[in-house]
Amino acid sequence: MVVSMDFLRPASLAEALELKAANPDAVPIAGGTDVMVELNFDKRRPAALLDLGRVPELATWRAENGRVRLGATVPYTRIVDELGDVLPGLAMAARTVGSPQIRNRAGVGGNLGSASPAGDAHPPLLATGADVEVASTRGTRTVPIGEFFLGPKRSALAADELVTAVLVPVAAGPQQFAKVGTRNAMVIAVCSFGLALDTTRRTVGTGIGSAGPVPLRAAAAEDFAAEVLPWDEPAANTLTDDTAKEFGELVAAAARPIDDVRGSAAYRRHALAVLARRTLRWAWQDVSGR
Amino acid sequence: MTDEPAPESSAHTRRTVLKSTAAAAAGTVVASHHTSVASAETAHTGGARTRVTLSVNGERHRIAIEPRVTLLDALRDRLGLTGTKKGCDRGECGACTVLADGERIKSCLTLAVMRQGAEITTVEGLTRGDDLHPVQEAFIRHDAFQCGACTPGQIMSAVACIDEGHAGSEAEIREWMSGNLCRCAAYQNIVAAVADAAEEGRR
User: Fold this and answer.
1) What's the predicted TM-score (pTM) here?
2) What are the tens digits of pLDDT across the range A220-278?
3) Where is the signal peptide (chain B) (predicted)?
4) Is A167 touching B (CB cutoff 8 A)?
5) 8 A C-beta contact, residue B200 and residue B134
6) B108/A98 CB distance under 8 A
């Protein structure tokens, strides 16, 4: 059967938003590393594709007001190469995405647009309290990352809107990311965890991936760690085993995992407790190393 | 998979063949299908065949394809460049790796229409006359393959891996070649070949 598919190729953001408004069913495509799999296997037959690869406004990042405004199509390779200092947690997660070939094409906008609970960018964005910038011909708005995900592959994005950027606070302390998979490359995470310490405000941010219908924060774990971490004496040995263990257990308790082909709910909870414990220890070592 | 015809030697002949194939393909749908979505807007390409100019291995090719055709299928089925292999068609195996403006990408995960304006290099474009590329030479020296199906992708990935400066140690090579699978598990020799070619480049 021959199926027609329109291919829309805007050359500017304004044109992209007009095309999206006129064709709300059009599926945005940038790196293609997610959308193309569905097309190749005929899981999806969109009436139109909206190619964002030629929209220059989406392909840049800049620092503004203590945050990085990261364009939706900046590939992970550039995030690793250029943003490791200011967005270490996101850069660490970026380095685990797919493979070098995938990282040359894929970006954060696609991760958000797909809104998969397993997206590697989501835990660090949650841990740092990033905002998602979305735009349409009606205007531009920002959505706090914690309100962006509504369900598996469902987001706060309206049919006429595009993700244009994420606004990520510049790191104010050590950040970590860890994920569990069957190998280091080309895996969908069994579970993942992002951690961000703010040593100035003495707060702790968390993000849980692949262990719930949406990426989750572990608010109780954040409050606990912010309160009990010995901020005044940041030496590696001041983080007690009890604190690390309790933190891990609170993170595991915040997860809402299911059993699926990649792992059981029980395994995910167990692994998250371990990842949370470990990343807290690594991050605290970085605090004390300063 | 695509039902595109085999490549022809001249562009004129290819267009002629395409027309007849399009007519045959349209046999199952209403006759108006191929014209119904045509549009005059510059930013809009209809769902029917569209003209795409691809620059591959230094040569420009003008072909008429449907927007849904991947770069991989365009290379293999339309340009006859079958060195690039289709393994999984979902970005996992790396057999379809090519360079786009010097960067390695998976050609199954990009549409041909999206890569206009990029300079594509396939394994066919590595040789200089009769001389093999140093990475190709190294793969032969180290016997870095068994069945050979993944080899063009491995070699293209290795060329980029070395260019990126990610071939400094065995561990680094293993990490940065992780997007290319070898079902024969010739990894030991692949890593040795990449290390050797990188070393040769530094000499």
Assistant:
1) 0.89
2) 999 999 999 999 988 878 899 999 999 999 999 999 999 999 999 999 999 999 999 99
3) none
4) no
5) yes
6) no
